[in-house]
## 1
Amino acid sequence: MSTVPAAEFAAQFLSWFQVSAFRLDTLGFYLADNEREPYRRFLAGQEQDLSWRHPWQRTVRQIGKRDRTIGRVHIVPDPLTDDLRFELTCAYPANVAAGEDAQILARSEADGIGLPDGEDFWLFDDRRSAVPNYGPGGEFTEVEFADADRVDQHVEWRCAAQAAAVPLHDYLEFAGLAPAE
């Protein structure tokens, strides 16, 4: 597998696909540099300034303008971690508003249909997949591009995850969580 540093992967993100990008999230904690202060504010119960989401929203909007699609399924435990409550109520609603299809799947359901625990991936055009690696603090460090057999497995997992997941807003309503304004 070839490895690409996180910064290079992000800088070239739009070049990795022509039709669709899909992300499967399976971990309970992630921390990007631009999320540190918003996450601190979230834990302190302070109001959110969602401008930190604008760069990703611009990327998602560019994807839509190019007639491409982007979506994700996030597999979540019960109960949710603080980080996941933050992601689901602060980050993901902004993603959806920009055009990303964000869906949620309970870990118990994911286990029942054979989805992975602890293996995230990006799947591009159902032909290429990138497996992110994270540092000990949850920071994204690099991706490894998978071989053809692994890509086939990721396509199967994407299909199963999307068939079982629910849209973000349905999940938030069911869980009694309100998106940040």
## 2
Amino acid sequence: MKKIVYAFVVMSLFVTTFTQAQEEKSNDFKRWQVRLRGIGVVPNESAKIGIIGGDVAISNAIVPELDFTYFFTKNFAAELILGTAKHDVNTVGSDISAIGGPTSFDVDLGSVMLLPPTLTAQYHFFPLKEKKFKPYVGAGLNYTLFYNVKEGDVVKAIEYDNAIGFAAQVGFDVMFDDTFFVNFDVKRLFLKTDVSVDATNLAEGLVIPAEVEINPWIVGLGFGMKF
């Protein structure tokens, strides 16, 4: 039900955006902008791990990010966010006594790269008369691709399912002039994936399933240009 409600809200934002675009015929503003940001990706992770139990730990990452925004009106816009990040992964407090290990052990699961293109619909405010400070809010959809999986030295293989999630966003631009600006942005992705860990090298037939919630915070700072 929550997913249906979120999807309805996102679709409503897009419908409103296109409606406003049809109503506003003025071309006295720049419709495109591009930004280059440095972002910190901070997972807020948790997991349900079968057989061995425990939780999951996913490392933070700092990476560059590129995004493009199109303004349908001066207030309504759509933004496409592109970036990729590498994360180290391990279980926390897993019970591997069945294969001769301790009852609480952190299993190294190597690393994985995430490519999470995200599309958000945004509303931009102009609270100051001179319009130099422009805050905005946004909501949208994310599709995360998991690739370049390195399973580490413990298990045989790991498989991550690609996943669709929701995104929420808040930020602001500070304009230097009508072309260049600095940007601060915070996003939260609501993202989970099913994971299958092939540990048949440790015990015959041992395949460990897990449901992992990543739910990262993404904090960005960068520069942009309108055109």
## 3
Amino acid sequence: MHYKELTTENLLNETSQTELSSAKYFRISGIQTETFWIIEKVLDGDTIIVKEEFGSESKEIRLYGLDAPEVHFSRKMREDEAKSHIPASLLKEMGLLSLEYVLQIAHPGTRVTLLTECKNQLDFWLRQLAYVILPSGECLNELLIQNGWAKASNSYYCSLLPNYQNINTLARTQKKGIYSFIDQF
């Protein structure tokens, strides 16, 4: 009987793409990992509320490196309307589609791991910024951009922003998600 030698190359060849794609998040310098969180509520395409699985703490999480259209008429929607020249009513419809996508892949009750860069932990509104790793090992942030339901944005900088910008360009070129309706947002 012959045994396959255990080498890094053999392990990489046998590891799925999903595992490889999420591994880069855990290698970010100064990353803080928080496990045992459950999605309590999805507010929109780039913000969720999570609660501790074995505790009572809840917190609002803003996803790193992306922006999704708003789902409510607000100051931010007026700003987005002025910048994009897209009517607020259409932006709202796109925001609702983005929200629906998140609810399909990360519905309330989904267990997640939160990864936060120590040098960039909070947004302007003092919400925690995070990469959200799903039970499948995929990153919610990346899936949203990859499938065209959010755009890469430097509003909340993250180490993987250049990667997200490339993924966003590909989604726009392939007319995925929101880009199947409009050219930019």
## 4
Amino acid sequence: MTGLLKATNKKTKQTNPKMTQDDIVYGHIFDAILEQRLPPGTKLSEEALGEIFGVSRTIIRRALLRLSVEQVVSTRPNRGSIVASPTVEEAMQILKAREVMELAIVELAAENATPEQIAKCRAMVAEENEAIAKNDTGRSIRLSGEFHIELAAMANNLPLMSFQRSLVSQCSLIIALYESSKKTHCSCDEHTQLLDVIEAGDKQAAIALMKTHLDHINSKLNLHDDSGTQDLHAVFSNVLKKKA
């Protein structure tokens, strides 16, 4: 095991003793996609990733397979894996699926959210505000996505949470491809308002606010934008620095 993975394992095992090398590699790649540091269409070389993370290609393959199940990575026979690149039609289907999912999630969250979960989400919004103030776009995008995943945790429904994780990451790919503005993707004020009505147990208000929130996100899409770098070593430069 490399020094990086030893250090990462030592840190994460304090909260999750069952964390594996597969989980760590998966987490790094998932976060890079969520932060839009890995743009759609990026070739995910098993050899390069194995070198970056200091693990076997078997571990890399398992992490990529897990991401392919979540539909954020596409595995092509005899050609390797790439970050998924949704077409316009696929993007519209994903956005509709997310709308249905998010509306169900906030309704259930208004019934089941605990004070601890509300407090956790409010802390995430504060972190998101801080990232926006520092123009840390990648971090603010990731925190926004994690906020929506945490809403699914509030719903107290494991299948919904699994689906939400996949849809949030797929929407990050859609934003990377098709958004006209590369600034803030979610309104922190809207996140706070959502938490207020969820905490109050107002299901109808939560559904209405989420619909408006998603409309604001979708209104920024022009369905033809594309940008980013496909250099794996540049994307994971932070990992390589830790290994040095």
